[in-house]
Specification:
ten-stranded mixed beta sheet, 12 helices, 270 residues, 44% helix, 10 strands, globular, alpha/beta
Length: 270
């Protein structure tokens, strides 16, 4: 298996260069294209609150300011992509309707790369992160310091749909890993599942994986993070938002705990 297109949404802000660098790191072992997709605030989203006669003086000035900010952001985002020496790259600037364009680009990409801030609900790309993970159900990489392709990869698996989907979609990444560790916490799950099934699934596809069955009950997230740290994992593969998003937002959940942690980088799929 391989990946051919890695997408990095860009905001025109200071986090763009790090996002491009992470996308390049992910793309390089596969010879994949990096698509830097400038995702500005959509003018169409602002128009409804302007009301009737929005072409009045104040409203027109506000609209022009938004357009100027978008142009400046596009210039900055383009510069962030062009600063990378990686040769196989493409810059795309989305126009209204921005969210439809972002969805279309993501559907033809193998992985979408974000930094820490959008994953934690901060900054101009926070909504884009939610859209990619939960609405479009695209595999997403949350890139953090120390990201490495070809290092140790951990896979959190509970037999559920989301975790299993992430475990399957991450196969190209796991094929490059120096070591793969499956982490399972049966006592912390309401499901009955056999962790060795995933190990066998990987073995049939040429990926040798170790199995670490955690004895902890209760909240699985702290046990997973502790096991990830003990294994020296550079990336954790996990399902995202296994419960309704509103419930996870209010009550937390494993996904939110992982997103709020500092390490490791995350490969997520809903």
């Amino acid at each position: 298996m391989s990946w051919a297109r890695i997408m990095a949404p860009l905001s025109g802000g200071p986090g763009d260069r790090a996002a491009v660098a992470a996308a390049v790191m992910l793309a390089e072992p596969f010879g994949a294209e990096v698509a830097g997709v400038y995702t500005p605030a959509d003018v169409a989203d602002v128009m409804p609150w302007m009301g009737e006669g929005f072409l009045g003086g104040v409203q027109t000035t506000a609209l022009e300011s938004l357009k100027e900010a978008a142009a400046a952001g596009e210039k900055s985002a383009r510069a962030a992509l062009e600063a990378s020496p990686y040769g196989k790259k493409q810059f795309i600037a989305l126009q209204t309707p921005v969210w439809a364009g972002l969805s279309a680009e993501s559907r033809l990409s193998d992985v979408v790369v974000f930094g820490n801030d959008p994953a934690r609900g901060r900054g101009p790309l926070a909504e884009a992160f939610q859209q990619m993970v939960a609405d479009e159900q695209r595999p997403v990489l949350v890139a953090r310091e120390g990201l490495k392709v070809g290092g140790v990869a951990a896979v959190a698996w509970d037999g559920g749909k989301e975790a299993s989907r992430a475990a399957r979609l991450a196969l190209p990444l796991l094929e490059k890993a120096s070591r793969v560790v499956i982490l399972a916490a049966p006592k912390a799950s309401s499901r009955t599942f056999d962790p060795a099934r995933l190990q066998a699934y990987y073995a049939a596809r040429g990926v040798k994986a170790e199995l670490n069955v955690l004895a902890d009950s209760g909240d699985a997230a702290p046990a997973l993070l502790h096991a990830v740290s003990a294994a020296g994992a550079d990336i954790l593969v996990a399902g995202a938002f296994g419960h309704p998003r509103l419930q996870e937002f209010i009550f937390g959940g494993t996904t939110r705990t992982l997103l709020n942690s500092d390490q490791p980088s995350l490969f997520l799929s809903h």
